């Protein structure tokens, strides 16, 4: 079997790289680009002889597409590409090399190259965007990358992607649909937009041990994950439909928006010991083997809905003070106790208009609906039903009714910018409801 890997050696700090190149040769700062080295708005090379025309250029300005029936291609001597290089639909191309290029200001795109096995950009240190898309035969892709804003690797035959040892910051990092992929390692410390991995087959192990923060992270079909230093996810964090059995992210302190762990069939343990705040919804659902959820005892606030569905017998949210949205907790385990959640609800900590807590033995839920005369100390006396099968609890106030309800998917609440005084919960319910929509 071929050794299929992507190795991208060494790295420096990343400066933002302008993706746009100058649109005309004569306006470049050097002013010294020979006319043959300016491609106009774009040029296409379909044979090696077309590429040879640029061998006298140390800087090429413009966008070049390599396409057509050539079997191998080489771009010699060019050091800087002030524009983008696209190698597209060259269905006979087996190898391509451009080992002098140090910088591509725009993007380097390799796409739909059905027999390409080797691509070499051995001197490439800086690039705006790198995208490798539909490369079913690629076994080696080599660069010396130190700076890149966006990385996209999709539908390739790469088995490992582990050469990002010097790349510390990117805007986005997206690895999807690489069915042979077994390993992704990167030394990124920040991802200012999205880190996404998914659908790479079922055996991909990830290691992002130097990552400190990312704007958002979404992982699917991952077999093993390591985020040893991840402290903050500014927007959303989702682990959906993975095959790992344990998930440990103990340094994580906060998630700015929604936090989701769902449909991970093999997951039986989670550990998030430092997590204190979740800005959006908190969703743990359909992880069929997750029986114990006892690692969220430091979480104090949930800015959206609390939605925990499964077959768990413990759920420890002992520091929780506030849930801005609805709460829907349902388990098929009969020995799960809803008491702690009911206490929270009675204290007015659950601010959404629905509270459902059900276990396999009894069901207890309520929905609160508002009537127009908003009045007073409303949250008193509205405890939800405790036991027995779906009995109605009586409403004890004229301003609100609480009744058992079938559980339904809860709605995430947008964070609202004020706190609601307990005594006027129902008076403000209209405002809360509008914030929910
Ligand atoms: C190269 O293409 C990009 C968009 O893909 C465009 O913004 C840029 O102006 C082009 N460069 C030149 C020199 O035409
Ligand atoms: C790819 O190249 C083939 C010829 O080799 C051509 O028939 C086909 O239309 C091209 N596809 C695209 C999307 O350009
Ligand atoms: C990442 O977060 C940004 C906003 O912060 C959002 O627009 C974008 O859709 C998110 N992407 C994903 C994959 O969640
Ligand atoms: C997951 O990775 C850890 C180390 O990073 C390793 O010890 C463990 O065996 C891996 N588990 C699987 C299922 O690959
Ligand atoms: C994300 O959070 C980190 C740590 O709080 C912060 O340093 C960084 O500036 C934030 N990034 C964005 C894009 O908001
Ligand atoms: C989970 O992933 C598998 C394959 O990767 C797919 O067949 C299945 O539909 C996915 N399930 C969900 C709930 O997304
Ligand atoms: C929580 O974070 C602190 C410092 O940020 C760290 O010292 C501690 O080890 C973390 N806890 C766990 C369980 O990892
Ligand atoms: C959990 O599974 C149910 C039933 O298959 C589905 O309706 C629900 O959307 C799932 N929830 C999540 C968060 O995946
Ligand atoms: C819940 O887990 C128990 C074992 O702890 C198992 O016997 C039962 O079938 C599971 N129920 C569901 C609905 O998965
Ligand atoms: C709940 O019952 C399961 C068996 O169905 C048992 O393994 C678990 O320890 C029990 N949990 C509690 C908190 O009683």
Task: Give a structural overview.
It is found in: Cell membrane; Secreted, Cell wall. One of its GO terms (biological process) is fungal-type cell wall organization. Belongs to the SPS2 family. One of its GO terms (cellular component) is cell surface. The two termini are 54 Å apart. It is elongated, with a radius of gyration of 28 Å. Residues 7-30 and 368-437 have low confidence and may be disordered. The protein is mainly beta and 437 residues long. It has 2 domains: 1-165, no CATH class; 231-437, no CATH class. Residues 194, 196, 215-216, 218, 235-236 line the site of one 2-acetamido-2-deoxy-beta-D-glucopyranose (NAG).
> What is the number of helical segments per DSSP (H or I, 4+ residues)?
3
What is the SS-derived class? mainly beta
Q: How large is the share of residues in beta strands?
A: 35-45%
Unreliably modeled segments: 7-30, 368-437
Radius of gyration, CA atoms, in whole angstroms: 28 Å
Oligomer: single chain
Number of domains: 2
Task: Summarize model confidence as the mean pLDDT.
Answer: 79
Cofactors, ions and other ligands in the entry: 2-acetamido-2-deoxy-beta-D-glucopyranose
Number of strands: 38
Helix content, binned percent: under 10%
Envelope shape: elongated
Biggest sheet layout: 25 strands, mixed
Report how far the terminal alpha carbons are from each other: 54 Å
């Amino acid at each position: 079997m071929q050794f299929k890997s992507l190795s991208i050696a060494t790295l420096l700090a990343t400066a933002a790289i302008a993706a746009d190149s100058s649109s005309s040769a004569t306006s470049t700062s050097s002013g010294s680009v020979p006319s043959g080295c300016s491609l106009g708005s774009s040029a296409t090379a379909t044979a090696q002889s077309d590429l040879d025309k640029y061998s006298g250029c140390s800087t090429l300005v413009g966008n070049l597409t390599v396409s057509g029936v050539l079997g191998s291609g080489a771009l010699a001597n060019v050091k800087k590409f002030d524009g983008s290089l696209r190698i597209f639909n060259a269905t006979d191309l087996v190898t391509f090399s451009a080992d002098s290029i140090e910088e591509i200001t725009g993007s380097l795109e390799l796409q739909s190259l059905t027999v390409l096995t080797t691509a070499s950009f051995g001197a490439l240190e800086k690039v705006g965007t790198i995208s490798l898309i539909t490369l079913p035969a690629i076994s080696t892709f080599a660069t010396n990358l130190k700076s890149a804003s966006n990385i996209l690797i999709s539908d390739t035959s790469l088995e490992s992607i582990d050469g990002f040892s010097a790349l510390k910051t990117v805007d986005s990092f997206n690895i999807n649909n690489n069915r042979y992929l077994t390993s992704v390692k990167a030394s990124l410390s920040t991802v200012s937009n999205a880190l996404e991995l998914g659908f790479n087959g079922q055996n991909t192990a990830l290691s992002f041990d130097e990552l400190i923060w990312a704007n958002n992270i979404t992982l699917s079909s991952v077999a093993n994950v390591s985020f040893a230093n991840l402290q903050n996810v500014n927007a959303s964090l989702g682990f959906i439909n993975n095959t790992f059995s344990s998930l440990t992210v103990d340094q994580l302190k906060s998630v700015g928006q929604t936090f989701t762990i769902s449909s991970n069939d093999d997951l039986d343990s989670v550990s998030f010991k430092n997590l204190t705040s979740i800005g959006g919804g908190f969703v743990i659902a359909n992880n069929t083997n997750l029986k114990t959820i006892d690692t969220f005892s430091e979480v104090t606030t949930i800015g959206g809905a609390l939605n925990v569905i499964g077959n768990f017998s413990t759920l420890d949210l002992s520091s929780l003070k506030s849930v801005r949205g609805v709460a829907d907790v349902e388990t098929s385990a009969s020995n799960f106790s809803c008491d702690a959640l009911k206490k929270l609800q009675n204290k007015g900590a659950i601010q959404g208009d629905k509270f459902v807590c059900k276990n396999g033995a009894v069901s207890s839920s309520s929905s609160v609906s508002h009537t127009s005369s908003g009045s007073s100390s409303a949250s008193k006396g509205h405890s939800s039903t405790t036991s027995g099968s779906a009995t109605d609890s009586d409403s004890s106030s004229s301003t609100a009714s609480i009744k058992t309800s079938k559980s339904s998917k809860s709605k995430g609440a947008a964070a609202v910018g004020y706190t609601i005084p307990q005594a006027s919960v129902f008076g403000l319910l209209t405002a809360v409801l509008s914030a929910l929509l």
